[in-house]
Design brief:
Length: about 150
Amino acid sequence: MAGTLTFDYVTYIEATPEQVWHALTDPGETVAYWGHGNVSDWRPGSRWERRRTDGSGIADVEGAVLESSPPTRLVTTWAEPGAGAAEAGPGVSTVTFGIEPYGEIVRLSLTHEGLAGAAERDAAAQGWYAVPASLKTLLETGRPLPREPWAMP
């Protein structure tokens, strides 16, 4: 059934919840490990965009901030530009980041819900395996993985 598939991912990062939150929400940080700037004021109801870094200002993904509880939880809609990403509907999915202390490290969980089918879930999975890996590497070593997430198999 369309719009019912979910992708879940969990990783553990040697960092504080505040560092992980900053890495998810600061455009300069997201450029470093994601290759795009995530731009918003991160308040519920606000728009967010994943903008290219080539100076074009083009947003490849956009959405709305549904929930923002620094430094523990961020929920956004996720859609192609122009899909009406402020609300759930056709072509709009939801991404939830959970950030929780786990002893001296952080457990980062990511859930991408409302995916339209197996092909969309597989495409999301390809990116979602690489993005948190690069974020983790950046926070633990000071540098991201040497390849853009979309260039990883």
